[in-house]
Amino acid sequence: MGIDLDHYRLRSGNGDGTPARLPKGRYLEEEYAELERQRLWPSTWQLACLTSDVAEPGDWFEYRIGDQSYLVVRDHDGELRAFHNACRHRGFQLCEGKGNADELRCGFHDWCYGLDGSLKEIVYRKHFGVVANENLSLAPVRLGTWHQMVFINPSPDGPDLDEFLDPVPDTLAPFNLGERSLTACWTIPLGGNWKTTVDAFNEAYHLEGLHPGLRGFMDALNTTYELWDRGHSMMKIPLGIGSPRFPDADQEEVAQAFVDNYSTMLGLQPHDKVDLAGQSARDWAVGLVRDRAAAENVDFSHYTDEQILDDYHYLVFPNVVLNVHSDMYTIFRARPGDHTGHSHFDFWLFHRLGDRANSGSPPEMIHFPEGTVIAEVVNQDLDGIGRVQAGMASNGIDELVLGDFDSRLVNMHAELDRVLAGEGSRK
Fold it and tell me: CA angle 41-43-45, nearest 5°?
């Protein structure tokens, strides 16, 4: 492409305290989105589905991102495989959605493929002359799993999934994500670029304006950050700590804000009254979480108080956010949509269920229309994403100004610059 990458490149601070700056065209202009389609998505690991989507032999799942479609398939031997979702004859997409089959048969001219991607049948074969089946297998893509998550990478080059994810799995190992069960999942279209969505969940600074109800027991100033190679990062948001902006708030008020917003985590009901009995709000909350876990036959004895209470928040480059707590975690995924100002926001929720684990089928994905009211905090985030995207179109702004709170954004966009410049996979 004849695109001027310097026009879009992140401008890092120069060491004298100058903030980083990010040209708004990265979120608005089609030529930049086209560069992502050509150089980012075909070359990186990305979350395609969950293992529960392809749990049984013959299960298949279609993963769509932008104008590309892929199939994740569990073959007859139980092995997971992934392919480009296109018949090798004329490109007809073999599957839509999810399902189960003994073979993959094209709905256009009835060519048939095995679950291993091999071509099994060409209808009226003699009319194609000399054709070798092995040369017309479905085009494969790399696949790897991490706990319940299935990742694909269309590129044959670069690190395997374990190397790509490093150090995220090791830092999350104490939380035993594989012990959680899927309890809810949904997707919703958004009026915002996929990066606008990722950015929104990459900093805690937006607590100050977007989530006023949460400021009573968590705060951006108390949040710590870690930045890693390949664009990955994390932040830890302590809960049960009052904001320095409200120095007159006492511990009872901090605890009450906790209850009013995160009552389920504490085993209480919204607006239940607080009785700290001389404890700090934080120690009181830790005790409630431990008591609730014990009552549900879930062992939290090996967790520190920080692991019991705090929000461990991860970005897996480029577009997967993990929000991890001791008893539950969420996955957010932002996928490019129909145009540069549109995306899809996908959400999965997992819980420790103790004795209730594996007691039923996992929930199906709910497809919400844009604008659906889901929950207060989530809707505040989604509304904020739309307003940021709309505001960036203003003639009164040319670039985004990124401060210390935005260090994870800087790390992510620096990696995006490297990938789009064609510098190859980092070893």
Answer: 80
Q: Cβ(156)–Cβ(142) under 8 Å?
A: yes
Question: Residue 169: which residues within 8 A CB-CB, separation 6 or more?
Answer: 146, 162
Write the burial class of residue 380 (CB in 10 Å: 0-12 exposed, 13-18 middle, 19+ buried).
middle
Does the structure show a pLDDT above 90 at 360?
no
Residues 6+ apart with CB under 8 A from 360: none
Q: What is the mean pLDDT of the chain?
A: 93
Which residue do the tokens 């004859």 mark? 89
The enclosing H or E element of 278 equals none
Asked which of 38-52, 104-118, 153-167, 261-275 is least confident by mean pLDDT, the reply is: 261-275
Give how far the C-alpha of residue 340 lies from the chain's centroid of Cα atoms, to the nearest Å: 19
Q: For residue 45, give the amino acid letter.
A: W
Query: Which DSSP helix (H) or strand (E) runs through 379?
Result: helix 376-392
Whole-angstrom distance, CA of residue 120 vs CA of residue 59: 19
Query: How far lies 11's CA from each of 124, 400, 413, in Å?
Result: 59, 10, 10
* Inter-residue contact 60 to 101 (CB < 8 Å): yes
* H helix runs in 142-223, sequence order: 161-165, 168-172, 194-200
Give 3-state DSSP helix, strand, coil % of the chain, rounded to 5.
30, 25, 45
* Pair of tokens at residue 141: 């893509």
Helices (H) and strands (E) in the chain, counts: 11, 20
In total, the chain counts a number of residues equal to 427
pLDDT in tens, 292-313: 988 888 888 889 999 999 999 9
